[in-house]
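Class, discuss our next protein.
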Amino acid sequence: MHRYKTWVVVGLLALGQAAIAQAPAPTAAADDASSLSCADFNAAASQVLPGPNPTELQRRRAVEAQDYIGNGMVWLHGYLTGRNGPASVGKLSRDWISSNVTRLGKACAAAADPAATRLVDLVQKP
């Protein structure tokens, strides 16, 4: 999953995400990705970049957050492919992940109630 690290970082750098947070791990149930919210996405995104001179804990949290977001994007791609068909979604690629991480990051940053805004609801919008 570490190969997605670059994709995730590229998407988040486009958003200017440089915050280091000591927030707890995302709260959605690990086996129910359909319940992931913007609050979950924002919590993980805030830990993706460990900052200058990171501690071992910050490095570990950054890798975990990168994996979490990468896994979420793979799940969302599969969800969209199953719902809309492969022709409308396209191949799972670096560009697809980067553009959708950026899109979700912007939408989640603008969400009025991040805890109530589900990622699947955002990806259903064009």
In short: Residues 10 and 16 are 10 Å apart (CA to CA). The helical segments are 4-15, 38-45, 56-84, 86-89, 94-110, 119-123. The longest helix spans residues 56-84. The radius of gyration is 14 Å.
